[in-house]
Amino acid sequence: MEDESAKASSLASFKSVFANLSVFQFLTFLRRGVFYSFMINYLFTLMQTVTSTAFLGTLDMVASALGQNLLWGRICDRVKVRAKLIIVGETIAAFSYMIVFLIHRSLIDAGSTFTAGLAIIFGLSILEFFWSMSDVGWAALLTDVTTTETRGRVIGTMNFIASLGRMVGILFAGSLYEKGEGFRNGTIFYIVTALLFVGVAIMLFLLRRVKGRSTTPYEVTSEVKETEGKSTKENEKAYKWLLASLVIIVLGAASINQIILLFIKLPAGANASDYEMSLILSSWTIGGMIASLGFGRLTDKIGRNRVMLLGLGLAIMTPLLYGVASNYAVMALIYGMNGVSFWTIQTVGFVLAGDLIPKNRRGRLLSRYNTVMALSWGPAGILIGGPLADIQVRSLGLPPHAAYINAFYASALMVAGGAILFALKVARAQRRGSA
Question: CATH classification of 230-435 is 1.20.1250.20, yes or no?
Answer without folding.
Answer: yes
